[in-house]
Design brief:
The complex is a heterodimer. Chain A is mostly helical. Chain A has helices spanning 2-28, 33-37, 46-55, 62-74, 88-123, 128-142, 145-159, 172-178, 180-188, 191-206, 209-216, 221-259, 264-273, 277-305, 307-315. By secondary structure, chain B is an all-alpha fold. The longest helix of chain B has 37 residues, at 72-108. Chain B is elongated, with a radius of gyration of 21 Å. The chains are: A mainly alpha, B mainly alpha.
Protein backbone atom coordinates (compact mmCIF):
# COMPACT_ATOMS: atom_id res chain seq x y z
CA UNK A 1 0.00 0.00 0.00
CA UNK A 2 2.77 2.36 0.93
CA UNK A 3 4.57 1.70 -2.34
CA UNK A 4 1.34 2.30 -4.25
CA UNK A 5 0.82 5.63 -2.50
CA UNK A 6 4.41 6.59 -3.25
CA UNK A 7 4.03 5.63 -6.89
CA UNK A 8 0.83 7.67 -7.18
CA UNK A 9 2.57 10.61 -5.55
CA UNK A 10 5.40 10.36 -8.06
CA UNK A 11 2.83 10.10 -10.84
CA UNK A 12 1.06 13.28 -9.78
CA UNK A 13 4.36 15.12 -9.38
CA UNK A 14 5.62 14.05 -12.81
CA UNK A 15 2.30 15.02 -14.36
CA UNK A 16 2.37 18.47 -12.78
CA UNK A 17 5.99 19.00 -13.87
CA UNK A 18 5.35 17.81 -17.41
CA UNK A 19 2.12 19.78 -17.71
CA UNK A 20 4.09 22.87 -16.73
CA UNK A 21 6.91 22.08 -19.17
CA UNK A 22 4.45 21.37 -21.97
CA UNK A 23 2.45 24.52 -21.34
CA UNK A 24 5.55 26.68 -20.96
CA UNK A 25 6.97 25.25 -24.17
CA UNK A 26 3.88 26.11 -26.17
CA UNK A 27 3.69 29.54 -24.51
CA UNK A 28 7.30 30.30 -25.40
CA UNK A 29 6.90 29.13 -29.00
CA UNK A 30 7.88 31.92 -31.37
CA UNK A 31 5.09 33.48 -33.37
CA UNK A 32 1.88 35.17 -32.31
CA UNK A 33 -1.04 32.74 -31.89
CA UNK A 34 -3.19 35.44 -33.51
CA UNK A 35 -1.61 34.75 -36.91
CA UNK A 36 -2.85 31.16 -36.69
CA UNK A 37 -6.23 32.11 -35.24
CA UNK A 38 -7.11 34.72 -37.83
CA UNK A 39 -5.82 33.33 -41.09
CA UNK A 40 -6.99 36.12 -43.36
CA UNK A 41 -5.14 39.42 -42.68
CA UNK A 42 -8.16 41.41 -43.89
CA UNK A 43 -10.22 40.06 -41.00
CA UNK A 44 -7.80 41.49 -38.49
CA UNK A 45 -9.89 44.44 -37.33
CA UNK A 46 -9.17 45.79 -33.84
CA UNK A 47 -12.56 44.53 -32.61
CA UNK A 48 -11.98 41.04 -33.92
CA UNK A 49 -8.45 40.92 -32.50
CA UNK A 50 -9.70 42.02 -29.08
CA UNK A 51 -12.50 39.45 -29.16
CA UNK A 52 -10.13 36.62 -30.09
CA UNK A 53 -7.57 37.69 -27.50
CA UNK A 54 -10.27 37.65 -24.85
CA UNK A 55 -11.73 34.32 -26.00
CA UNK A 56 -8.35 32.56 -25.80
CA UNK A 57 -7.19 34.48 -22.69
CA UNK A 58 -4.15 35.76 -24.57
CA UNK A 59 -3.84 38.93 -22.48
CA UNK A 60 -3.58 37.20 -19.10
CA UNK A 61 -0.20 36.68 -17.48
CA UNK A 62 1.64 33.44 -18.12
CA UNK A 63 0.97 32.01 -14.68
CA UNK A 64 -2.73 32.74 -14.69
CA UNK A 65 -3.01 31.29 -18.20
CA UNK A 66 -1.29 28.14 -16.98
CA UNK A 67 -3.44 27.89 -13.87
CA UNK A 68 -6.68 28.38 -15.76
CA UNK A 69 -5.57 25.79 -18.33
CA UNK A 70 -4.67 23.36 -15.54
CA UNK A 71 -7.99 23.98 -13.82
CA UNK A 72 -9.78 23.30 -17.09
CA UNK A 73 -7.78 20.10 -17.65
CA UNK A 74 -8.79 18.84 -14.21
CA UNK A 75 -12.43 19.48 -15.10
CA UNK A 76 -12.11 17.71 -18.43
CA UNK A 77 -11.91 20.94 -20.41
CA UNK A 78 -8.78 20.84 -22.58
CA UNK A 79 -9.40 24.15 -24.33
CA UNK A 80 -10.52 24.90 -27.87
CA UNK A 81 -8.65 23.92 -31.00
CA UNK A 82 -7.27 26.85 -33.02
CA UNK A 83 -7.96 25.03 -36.27
CA UNK A 84 -11.17 23.06 -35.80
CA UNK A 85 -12.74 25.58 -33.37
CA UNK A 86 -14.02 22.59 -31.40
CA UNK A 87 -13.36 21.56 -27.81
CA UNK A 88 -10.07 19.60 -27.73
CA UNK A 89 -11.69 17.04 -25.40
CA UNK A 90 -14.24 16.16 -28.10
CA UNK A 91 -11.52 15.79 -30.72
CA UNK A 92 -9.56 13.52 -28.38
CA UNK A 93 -12.52 11.28 -27.53
CA UNK A 94 -13.35 10.83 -31.20
CA UNK A 95 -9.74 9.89 -32.00
CA UNK A 96 -8.75 7.83 -28.97
CA UNK A 97 -10.59 4.56 -29.79
CA UNK A 98 -8.55 4.05 -32.97
CA UNK A 99 -5.23 4.60 -31.20
CA UNK A 100 -6.08 2.46 -28.18
CA UNK A 101 -7.40 -0.39 -30.35
CA UNK A 102 -4.24 -0.21 -32.45
CA UNK A 103 -1.96 -0.39 -29.41
CA UNK A 104 -4.03 -3.22 -27.89
CA UNK A 105 -3.84 -5.26 -31.08
CA UNK A 106 -0.13 -4.67 -31.49
CA UNK A 107 0.45 -5.56 -27.83
CA UNK A 108 -1.49 -8.82 -28.13
CA UNK A 109 0.46 -9.66 -31.27
CA UNK A 110 3.95 -9.00 -29.97
CA UNK A 111 3.33 -10.65 -26.60
CA UNK A 112 2.00 -13.86 -28.15
CA UNK A 113 4.52 -14.08 -31.00
CA UNK A 114 7.47 -12.80 -28.96
CA UNK A 115 6.95 -15.14 -26.02
CA UNK A 116 6.31 -18.07 -28.34
CA UNK A 117 9.52 -17.43 -30.27
CA UNK A 118 11.41 -17.02 -27.00
CA UNK A 119 10.09 -20.32 -25.61
CA UNK A 120 10.96 -22.13 -28.84
CA UNK A 121 14.50 -20.76 -28.95
CA UNK A 122 15.05 -21.52 -25.25
CA UNK A 123 13.93 -25.13 -25.73
CA UNK A 124 15.97 -25.50 -28.92
CA UNK A 125 18.95 -23.67 -27.47
CA UNK A 126 22.10 -23.85 -29.56
CA UNK A 127 20.37 -25.18 -32.67
CA UNK A 128 19.91 -23.51 -36.06
CA UNK A 129 16.31 -22.74 -35.11
CA UNK A 130 17.51 -20.75 -32.11
CA UNK A 131 20.11 -18.92 -34.19
CA UNK A 132 17.72 -18.09 -37.00
CA UNK A 133 15.03 -16.80 -34.63
CA UNK A 134 17.60 -14.49 -33.04
CA UNK A 135 19.01 -13.43 -36.41
CA UNK A 136 15.72 -12.73 -38.16
CA UNK A 137 14.09 -10.88 -35.25
CA UNK A 138 17.23 -8.77 -34.71
CA UNK A 139 17.26 -7.78 -38.36
CA UNK A 140 13.53 -6.92 -38.23
CA UNK A 141 14.25 -4.63 -35.28
CA UNK A 142 16.83 -2.76 -37.33
CA UNK A 143 14.40 -1.91 -40.13
CA UNK A 144 12.66 1.39 -39.30
CA UNK A 145 8.98 0.71 -38.67
CA UNK A 146 7.86 3.17 -41.32
CA UNK A 147 9.71 1.08 -43.91
CA UNK A 148 8.09 -2.12 -42.57
CA UNK A 149 4.73 -0.34 -42.78
CA UNK A 150 5.29 0.72 -46.40
CA UNK A 151 6.37 -2.80 -47.39
CA UNK A 152 3.23 -4.23 -45.77
CA UNK A 153 1.06 -1.68 -47.60
CA UNK A 154 2.76 -2.47 -50.88
CA UNK A 155 2.46 -6.25 -50.58
CA UNK A 156 -0.88 -6.78 -48.82
CA UNK A 157 -2.85 -3.70 -49.81
CA UNK A 158 -1.55 -2.71 -53.24
CA UNK A 159 -0.43 -6.02 -54.79
CA UNK A 160 -2.68 -8.59 -53.10
CA UNK A 161 -5.54 -6.19 -52.30
CA UNK A 162 -6.35 -8.02 -49.07
CA UNK A 163 -6.62 -4.73 -47.18
CA UNK A 164 -7.42 -1.10 -47.91
CA UNK A 165 -4.50 1.28 -48.38
CA UNK A 166 -5.74 3.68 -45.71
CA UNK A 167 -8.64 4.46 -43.38
CA UNK A 168 -9.65 3.24 -39.94
CA UNK A 169 -12.93 1.47 -40.79
CA UNK A 170 -16.44 1.77 -39.36
CA UNK A 171 -17.83 -0.46 -36.63
CA UNK A 172 -15.88 -2.84 -34.42
CA UNK A 173 -15.22 -5.75 -36.79
CA UNK A 174 -14.32 -3.54 -39.72
CA UNK A 175 -12.00 -1.51 -37.49
CA UNK A 176 -10.12 -4.60 -36.36
CA UNK A 177 -9.78 -5.60 -40.02
CA UNK A 178 -8.46 -2.15 -40.99
CA UNK A 179 -6.03 -2.07 -38.10
CA UNK A 180 -4.46 -5.47 -38.85
CA UNK A 181 -1.60 -4.20 -41.02
CA UNK A 182 -0.84 -1.19 -38.79
CA UNK A 183 -0.78 -3.44 -35.72
CA UNK A 184 1.66 -5.82 -37.41
CA UNK A 185 3.90 -2.92 -38.42
CA UNK A 186 3.84 -1.57 -34.87
CA UNK A 187 4.52 -4.97 -33.30
CA UNK A 188 7.32 -6.31 -35.51
CA UNK A 189 10.07 -4.25 -33.91
CA UNK A 190 9.25 -5.69 -30.47
CA UNK A 191 9.55 -9.37 -31.41
CA UNK A 192 13.32 -9.42 -30.92
CA UNK A 193 13.38 -7.87 -27.45
CA UNK A 194 10.50 -9.94 -26.08
CA UNK A 195 11.77 -13.23 -27.46
CA UNK A 196 15.29 -12.48 -26.21
CA UNK A 197 14.14 -11.67 -22.67
CA UNK A 198 11.92 -14.77 -22.62
CA UNK A 199 14.74 -16.97 -23.90
CA UNK A 200 17.27 -15.53 -21.46
CA UNK A 201 15.15 -15.92 -18.32
CA UNK A 202 13.97 -19.38 -19.35
CA UNK A 203 17.52 -20.56 -19.91
CA UNK A 204 18.45 -19.26 -16.47
CA UNK A 205 15.42 -20.95 -14.88
CA UNK A 206 16.10 -24.27 -16.58
CA UNK A 207 19.40 -24.69 -14.79
CA UNK A 208 17.90 -24.15 -11.31
CA UNK A 209 17.59 -26.94 -8.77
CA UNK A 210 13.82 -27.12 -8.55
CA UNK A 211 13.72 -27.88 -12.27
CA UNK A 212 16.25 -30.66 -11.79
CA UNK A 213 14.12 -32.04 -8.98
CA UNK A 214 10.99 -31.95 -11.13
CA UNK A 215 12.90 -33.69 -13.90
CA UNK A 216 14.17 -36.38 -11.52
CA UNK A 217 10.59 -37.04 -10.45
CA UNK A 218 9.94 -37.96 -14.04
CA UNK A 219 7.55 -35.09 -14.77
CA UNK A 220 6.65 -34.67 -18.43
CA UNK A 221 8.74 -32.05 -20.19
CA UNK A 222 5.72 -30.01 -21.21
CA UNK A 223 4.64 -29.82 -17.59
CA UNK A 224 8.07 -28.81 -16.37
CA UNK A 225 8.29 -26.08 -18.97
CA UNK A 226 4.84 -24.72 -18.32
CA UNK A 227 4.67 -25.01 -14.54
CA UNK A 228 8.23 -24.49 -13.40
CA UNK A 229 10.22 -22.73 -16.10
CA UNK A 230 7.79 -20.44 -17.90
CA UNK A 231 5.83 -19.45 -14.79
CA UNK A 232 8.97 -18.32 -13.00
CA UNK A 233 10.23 -16.48 -16.07
CA UNK A 234 7.13 -14.33 -16.39
CA UNK A 235 8.31 -11.45 -14.17
CA UNK A 236 11.00 -9.95 -16.41
CA UNK A 237 8.93 -10.70 -19.51
CA UNK A 238 5.90 -8.82 -18.19
CA UNK A 239 8.07 -5.86 -17.16
CA UNK A 240 9.63 -5.72 -20.62
CA UNK A 241 6.26 -5.98 -22.36
CA UNK A 242 4.89 -3.16 -20.22
CA UNK A 243 7.78 -0.89 -21.14
CA UNK A 244 7.31 -1.68 -24.82
CA UNK A 245 3.57 -0.99 -24.70
CA UNK A 246 4.27 2.31 -22.96
CA UNK A 247 6.68 3.42 -25.65
CA UNK A 248 4.33 2.18 -28.39
CA UNK A 249 1.92 4.96 -27.48
CA UNK A 250 4.46 7.34 -28.97
CA UNK A 251 5.15 4.93 -31.84
CA UNK A 252 1.59 5.29 -33.07
CA UNK A 253 2.58 8.76 -34.32
CA UNK A 254 4.54 7.16 -37.16
CA UNK A 255 2.28 4.21 -37.94
CA UNK A 256 -0.94 6.24 -37.97
CA UNK A 257 0.61 8.70 -40.41
CA UNK A 258 1.68 5.94 -42.79
CA UNK A 259 -1.68 4.18 -42.77
CA UNK A 260 -3.79 7.36 -42.78
CA UNK A 261 -5.54 6.41 -39.53
CA UNK A 262 -7.63 9.00 -37.70
CA UNK A 263 -5.96 8.43 -34.36
CA UNK A 264 -4.35 10.62 -31.75
CA UNK A 265 -0.84 10.09 -33.18
CA UNK A 266 -1.66 11.42 -36.64
CA UNK A 267 -3.59 14.27 -35.03
CA UNK A 268 -0.39 15.23 -33.15
CA UNK A 269 1.55 15.48 -36.41
CA UNK A 270 -1.21 17.48 -38.09
CA UNK A 271 -1.63 19.89 -35.20
CA UNK A 272 2.12 20.52 -34.95
CA UNK A 273 2.20 21.41 -38.64
CA UNK A 274 -0.86 23.64 -38.19
CA UNK A 275 0.47 25.26 -34.95
CA UNK A 276 -2.68 24.11 -33.17
CA UNK A 277 -1.14 24.43 -29.71
CA UNK A 278 -4.12 23.49 -27.49
CA UNK A 279 -4.36 20.16 -29.33
CA UNK A 280 -0.57 19.57 -29.14
CA UNK A 281 -0.62 20.29 -25.40
CA UNK A 282 -3.51 17.93 -24.77
CA UNK A 283 -2.03 15.05 -26.77
CA UNK A 284 1.42 15.38 -25.19
CA UNK A 285 -0.14 15.41 -21.74
CA UNK A 286 -2.27 12.39 -22.58
CA UNK A 287 0.78 10.49 -23.86
CA UNK A 288 2.76 11.20 -20.69
CA UNK A 289 -0.22 10.12 -18.57
CA UNK A 290 -0.73 6.93 -20.58
CA UNK A 291 2.98 6.12 -20.43
CA UNK A 292 3.07 6.49 -16.66
CA UNK A 293 -0.21 4.62 -16.18
CA UNK A 294 1.13 1.61 -18.08
CA UNK A 295 4.34 1.49 -16.04
CA UNK A 296 2.35 1.67 -12.79
CA UNK A 297 0.00 -1.12 -13.89
CA UNK A 298 3.05 -3.28 -14.59
CA UNK A 299 4.42 -2.59 -11.12
CA UNK A 300 1.07 -3.56 -9.61
CA UNK A 301 0.90 -6.74 -11.69
CA UNK A 302 4.33 -7.92 -10.60
CA UNK A 303 3.34 -9.18 -7.10
CA UNK A 304 0.44 -11.09 -8.67
CA UNK A 305 2.86 -12.99 -10.87
CA UNK A 306 5.51 -13.45 -8.23
CA UNK A 307 4.08 -13.13 -4.70
CA UNK A 308 7.61 -13.30 -3.25
CA UNK A 309 8.26 -9.68 -4.26
CA UNK A 310 5.35 -8.57 -2.06
CA UNK A 311 6.69 -10.48 0.95
CA UNK A 312 10.12 -9.04 0.39
CA UNK A 313 8.90 -5.46 0.17
CA UNK A 314 6.58 -6.08 3.14
CA UNK A 315 9.46 -7.32 5.26
CA UNK A 316 11.68 -4.41 4.33
CA UNK B 1 9.26 2.51 -32.95
CA UNK B 2 12.82 3.15 -32.21
CA UNK B 3 11.71 4.72 -28.99
CA UNK B 4 14.79 5.68 -27.16
CA UNK B 5 15.52 3.32 -24.38
CA UNK B 6 18.12 0.75 -23.65
CA UNK B 7 19.70 0.06 -27.02
CA UNK B 8 19.11 -3.43 -28.26
CA UNK B 9 22.33 -5.29 -27.74
CA UNK B 10 22.92 -8.20 -30.03
CA UNK B 11 22.91 -11.79 -28.85
CA UNK B 12 25.92 -13.89 -27.77
CA UNK B 13 29.05 -12.75 -29.51
CA UNK B 14 30.60 -16.08 -30.43
CA UNK B 15 28.17 -16.72 -33.23
CA UNK B 16 28.57 -13.22 -34.55
CA UNK B 17 32.32 -13.18 -34.86
CA UNK B 18 32.20 -14.02 -38.56
CA UNK B 19 30.01 -10.98 -39.12
CA UNK B 20 32.42 -8.42 -37.68
CA UNK B 21 34.63 -7.77 -40.73
CA UNK B 22 31.81 -7.64 -43.31
CA UNK B 23 29.99 -5.19 -41.05
CA UNK B 24 33.12 -3.09 -40.64
CA UNK B 25 33.39 -3.07 -44.44
CA UNK B 26 29.76 -1.91 -44.74
CA UNK B 27 30.46 0.97 -42.37
CA UNK B 28 33.60 1.85 -44.32
CA UNK B 29 31.57 1.97 -47.53
CA UNK B 30 28.94 4.19 -45.87
CA UNK B 31 31.58 6.59 -44.54
CA UNK B 32 33.38 6.53 -47.88
CA UNK B 33 30.13 7.43 -49.65
CA UNK B 34 29.55 10.28 -47.22
CA UNK B 35 33.05 11.71 -47.76
CA UNK B 36 33.30 11.22 -51.51
CA UNK B 37 29.65 11.68 -52.53
CA UNK B 38 30.11 14.83 -54.67
CA UNK B 39 32.61 13.00 -56.88
CA UNK B 40 31.29 9.46 -57.13
CA UNK B 41 27.55 9.76 -57.76
CA UNK B 42 26.82 8.61 -61.33
CA UNK B 43 24.14 11.30 -61.77
CA UNK B 44 23.31 14.62 -60.15
CA UNK B 45 21.21 13.49 -57.15
CA UNK B 46 18.77 16.38 -57.61
CA UNK B 47 18.50 16.24 -61.42
CA UNK B 48 14.92 15.37 -62.35
CA UNK B 49 14.05 13.63 -65.59
CA UNK B 50 10.43 13.25 -66.54
CA UNK B 51 11.17 10.67 -69.26
CA UNK B 52 12.52 8.31 -66.64
CA UNK B 53 10.03 8.18 -63.78
CA UNK B 54 9.98 5.02 -61.64
CA UNK B 55 12.38 3.20 -63.94
CA UNK B 56 13.16 -0.26 -62.54
CA UNK B 57 16.81 -1.16 -61.98
CA UNK B 58 18.71 -1.19 -65.29
CA UNK B 59 22.30 -0.80 -66.51
CA UNK B 60 21.72 2.95 -66.85
CA UNK B 61 20.14 3.29 -63.36
CA UNK B 62 21.47 0.46 -61.18
CA UNK B 63 18.83 0.94 -58.50
CA UNK B 64 16.15 2.58 -60.67
CA UNK B 65 14.69 6.09 -60.34
CA UNK B 66 12.13 7.80 -58.10
CA UNK B 67 8.90 9.70 -58.74
CA UNK B 68 10.78 12.67 -60.24
CA UNK B 69 13.10 10.51 -62.33
CA UNK B 70 16.07 11.08 -60.01
CA UNK B 71 18.66 8.31 -59.93
CA UNK B 72 18.21 6.33 -56.69
CA UNK B 73 21.82 5.15 -56.44
CA UNK B 74 23.05 8.74 -56.67
CA UNK B 75 20.53 9.85 -54.06
CA UNK B 76 21.38 7.09 -51.60
CA UNK B 77 25.10 7.82 -51.93
CA UNK B 78 24.47 11.54 -51.64
CA UNK B 79 22.18 10.95 -48.64
CA UNK B 80 24.93 9.23 -46.68
CA UNK B 81 26.43 12.60 -45.76
CA UNK B 82 23.39 14.32 -44.20
CA UNK B 83 22.21 11.08 -42.60
CA UNK B 84 25.53 10.14 -40.99
CA UNK B 85 26.45 13.73 -40.10
CA UNK B 86 23.07 14.21 -38.42
CA UNK B 87 23.53 11.09 -36.31
CA UNK B 88 27.10 12.05 -35.43
CA UNK B 89 26.02 15.54 -34.42
CA UNK B 90 23.20 14.32 -32.21
CA UNK B 91 25.48 11.76 -30.58
CA UNK B 92 28.23 14.33 -30.06
CA UNK B 93 25.84 16.68 -28.29
CA UNK B 94 24.35 13.86 -26.23
CA UNK B 95 27.82 12.59 -25.30
CA UNK B 96 29.14 15.98 -24.28
CA UNK B 97 26.13 16.59 -22.04
CA UNK B 98 25.79 13.03 -20.81
CA UNK B 99 29.45 12.56 -19.90
CA UNK B 100 29.52 15.93 -18.15
CA UNK B 101 26.43 15.07 -16.09
CA UNK B 102 27.43 11.48 -15.42
CA UNK B 103 30.99 12.30 -14.40
CA UNK B 104 29.93 15.22 -12.21
CA UNK B 105 27.37 13.03 -10.46
CA UNK B 106 29.87 10.23 -9.88
CA UNK B 107 32.59 12.60 -8.63
CA UNK B 108 30.52 14.71 -6.24
CA UNK B 109 27.98 12.09 -5.10
CA UNK B 110 25.76 13.58 -2.39
CA UNK B 111 23.05 16.04 -3.30
CA UNK B 112 24.39 16.86 -6.76
CA UNK B 113 24.20 13.18 -7.61
CA UNK B 114 20.66 12.95 -6.26
CA UNK B 115 19.55 16.05 -8.15
CA UNK B 116 21.05 14.88 -11.43
CA UNK B 117 19.60 11.40 -10.91
CA UNK B 118 16.13 12.93 -10.39
CA UNK B 119 16.45 14.98 -13.57
CA UNK B 120 17.53 11.98 -15.62
CA UNK B 121 14.73 9.93 -14.03
CA UNK B 122 12.15 12.45 -15.19
CA UNK B 123 13.67 12.35 -18.66
CA UNK B 124 13.48 8.56 -18.59
CA UNK B 125 9.83 8.70 -17.58
CA UNK B 126 9.16 10.56 -20.81
CA UNK B 127 9.36 8.69 -24.11
CA UNK B 128 12.26 10.23 -26.06
CA UNK B 129 10.28 10.68 -29.24
CA UNK B 130 7.65 12.70 -27.35
CA UNK B 131 10.30 15.01 -25.95
CA UNK B 132 11.70 15.67 -29.41
CA UNK B 133 8.22 16.21 -30.84
CA UNK B 134 7.58 18.79 -28.13
CA UNK B 135 10.82 20.59 -29.01
CA UNK B 136 9.76 20.58 -32.64
CA UNK B 137 6.29 21.84 -31.80
CA UNK B 138 7.90 24.78 -29.99
CA UNK B 139 10.81 25.62 -32.28
CA UNK B 140 9.38 24.43 -35.62
CA UNK B 141 10.75 21.67 -37.82
CA UNK B 142 14.22 21.70 -39.30
CA UNK B 143 17.43 19.76 -39.26
CA UNK B 144 18.97 21.71 -36.38
CA UNK B 145 15.87 21.39 -34.17
CA UNK B 146 15.61 17.67 -34.86
CA UNK B 147 19.31 17.02 -34.14
CA UNK B 148 19.42 19.17 -31.00
CA UNK B 149 16.16 17.71 -29.69
CA UNK B 150 17.38 14.17 -30.24
CA UNK B 151 20.72 15.01 -28.65
CA UNK B 152 18.96 16.27 -25.52
CA UNK B 153 16.75 13.18 -25.47
CA UNK B 154 19.77 10.86 -25.63
CA UNK B 155 21.83 12.70 -23.01
CA UNK B 156 20.20 11.00 -19.95
CA UNK B 157 20.90 7.53 -21.36
CA UNK B 158 24.58 8.37 -21.73
CA UNK B 159 24.67 10.15 -18.37
CA UNK B 160 23.36 7.04 -16.63
CA UNK B 161 25.89 4.81 -18.36
CA UNK B 162 28.79 7.21 -17.71
CA UNK B 163 27.88 7.51 -14.04
CA UNK B 164 27.90 3.74 -13.63
CA UNK B 165 31.33 3.21 -15.19
CA UNK B 166 32.76 6.36 -13.58
CA UNK B 167 31.84 5.10 -10.10
CA UNK B 168 33.78 1.92 -10.84
CA UNK B 169 36.73 3.86 -12.21
CA UNK B 170 36.87 6.32 -9.31
CA UNK B 171 37.12 3.43 -6.86
CA UNK B 172 40.47 2.38 -8.36
CA UNK B 173 43.63 2.94 -6.34
CA UNK B 174 45.30 5.19 -8.91
CA UNK B 175 42.63 7.82 -8.34
CA UNK B 176 43.50 8.02 -4.65
CA UNK B 177 47.19 8.18 -5.42
CA UNK B 178 46.73 11.08 -7.82
CA UNK B 179 44.56 12.78 -5.26
CA UNK B 180 47.35 12.38 -2.67
CA UNK B 181 49.73 14.02 -5.10
CA UNK B 182 47.40 17.01 -5.02
CA UNK B 183 45.65 16.71 -8.38
CA UNK B 184 42.41 18.73 -8.40
CA UNK B 185 39.09 17.07 -9.11
CA UNK B 186 38.66 18.69 -12.50
CA UNK B 187 42.15 17.84 -13.70
CA UNK B 188 41.94 14.32 -12.32
CA UNK B 189 38.64 13.58 -14.06
CA UNK B 190 39.65 15.12 -17.35
CA UNK B 191 43.23 13.88 -17.66
CA UNK B 192 43.19 10.48 -16.04
CA UNK B 193 39.70 9.13 -15.39
CA UNK B 194 38.03 10.10 -18.65
CA UNK B 195 40.70 8.59 -20.93
CA UNK B 196 40.48 5.35 -18.95
CA UNK B 197 36.72 5.21 -19.42
CA UNK B 198 36.88 6.08 -23.09
CA UNK B 199 37.19 2.54 -24.52
CA UNK B 200 34.10 1.28 -22.67
CA UNK B 201 32.20 4.41 -23.58
CA UNK B 202 33.20 4.13 -27.23
CA UNK B 203 31.70 0.68 -27.74
CA UNK B 204 28.47 1.83 -26.16
CA UNK B 205 28.38 4.93 -28.35
CA UNK B 206 28.79 2.91 -31.53
CA UNK B 207 25.76 0.82 -30.56
CA UNK B 208 23.81 3.99 -29.72
CA UNK B 209 24.78 5.42 -33.10
CA UNK B 210 22.58 2.91 -34.94
CA UNK B 211 19.72 3.69 -32.61
CA UNK B 212 20.16 7.43 -33.09
CA UNK B 213 20.33 7.06 -36.86
CA UNK B 214 16.97 5.28 -36.82
CA UNK B 215 15.34 7.83 -34.54
CA UNK B 216 16.57 10.70 -36.69
CA UNK B 217 15.36 8.92 -39.83
CA UNK B 218 11.94 8.63 -38.16
CA UNK B 219 11.83 12.39 -37.56
CA UNK B 220 12.86 13.06 -41.13
CA UNK B 221 10.21 10.64 -42.33
CA UNK B 222 7.57 12.57 -40.38
CA UNK B 223 8.77 15.72 -42.14
CA UNK B 224 10.08 17.28 -38.92
CA UNK B 225 13.76 17.33 -39.90
CA UNK B 226 15.50 17.78 -43.24
CA UNK B 227 13.42 19.33 -45.99
CA UNK B 228 13.43 18.55 -49.74
CA UNK B 229 15.45 18.38 -51.93
CA UNK B 230 17.78 16.82 -49.33
CA UNK B 231 18.44 13.17 -50.04
CA UNK B 232 18.48 12.21 -46.37
CA UNK B 233 17.46 8.53 -46.20
CA UNK B 234 14.45 9.05 -43.92
CA UNK B 235 13.17 11.83 -46.17
CA UNK B 236 13.71 9.64 -49.26
CA UNK B 237 11.41 7.01 -47.75
CA UNK B 238 8.79 9.65 -47.01
CA UNK B 239 8.92 10.94 -50.60
CA UNK B 240 8.52 7.40 -51.94
CA UNK B 241 5.06 7.02 -50.39
CA UNK B 242 3.16 8.11 -53.51
CA UNK B 243 5.01 5.40 -55.42
CA UNK B 244 4.15 2.69 -52.90
CA UNK B 245 0.43 3.35 -53.28
CA UNK B 246 0.80 3.05 -57.04
CA UNK B 247 2.67 -0.23 -56.73
CA UNK B 248 6.28 1.00 -57.01
CA UNK B 249 8.18 -0.22 -53.96
CA UNK B 250 11.78 0.31 -55.12
CA UNK B 251 12.21 3.97 -54.11
CA UNK B 252 11.05 3.09 -50.57
CA UNK B 253 13.09 -0.09 -50.27
CA UNK B 254 16.42 1.36 -51.39
CA UNK B 255 16.83 3.96 -48.61
CA UNK B 256 14.86 1.82 -46.13
CA UNK B 257 17.11 -1.20 -46.48
CA UNK B 258 20.18 1.04 -46.51
CA UNK B 259 19.16 2.32 -43.07
CA UNK B 260 18.55 -1.23 -41.85
CA UNK B 261 21.89 -2.52 -43.15
CA UNK B 262 23.87 0.37 -41.63
CA UNK B 263 22.05 -0.04 -38.30
CA UNK B 264 22.74 -3.79 -38.19
CA UNK B 265 26.39 -3.16 -39.09
CA UNK B 266 26.87 -0.56 -36.33
CA UNK B 267 25.21 -2.89 -33.81
CA UNK B 268 27.50 -5.80 -34.66
CA UNK B 269 30.61 -3.62 -34.70
CA UNK B 270 29.57 -1.81 -31.51
CA UNK B 271 28.91 -4.97 -29.52
CA UNK B 272 32.19 -6.50 -30.68
CA UNK B 273 34.07 -3.30 -29.82
CA UNK B 274 32.54 -3.16 -26.32
CA UNK B 275 33.58 -6.76 -25.73
CA UNK B 276 37.10 -6.20 -26.98
CA UNK B 277 37.79 -2.80 -25.48
CA UNK B 278 36.23 -3.54 -22.12
CA UNK B 279 38.32 -6.66 -21.61
CA UNK B 280 39.99 -5.12 -18.58
CA UNK B 281 36.77 -5.00 -16.58
Amino acid sequence: MVTLARRLGALVLTLVVSSFVIFAGMYAAPGDPLTFLIKNPEDRTPDRVAAVRAAYHLDDSFLSQYLSWLKGVLHGDLGTSFVYKQPVADLMTSRLPVTLTLVAMAALLFVVVGVLLGVVSALKRGTTIDASITGVTTFLTSIPNFVVALVLVSVFAVQLRWFDVSGSGEGFGDRLYHLTLPAIALAIGAFAVVSRVTRQTMVEQQSLEHVDVARSFGLARRKIVRRHVLRNSLGPVVTMCGLIIASMLAGTVVIESVFGLNGVGSMLVDSINAHDFPVVQAILLYMVLAYMAVTIVVDLLYPLIDPRTLERSGAA
Amino acid sequence: MTAIGAPVLAAPRKRRDWAFYPCLAILAVAVGAAVLSPWITPYDPTATSFDAIWVPPSPAHWLGTDQLGRDLLSRVVDGARPTLLGSIALLALATALGVLIGLTAAWHRGWIDTLLARITDVMFAFPGLLFVIMIIAVFDSGTVTAVVGMGLAYAPVIAKFTRAIALEELARPYVDSYRLQGAGGFELCLRYVLPNMLPTLLGYLVVLFGDGLMSLATLNFLGFGSQPPSSDWGLMVEESRTGVIQGVLGPALVPGLTIAIVVVATNVVGVRLSDKLAVRR
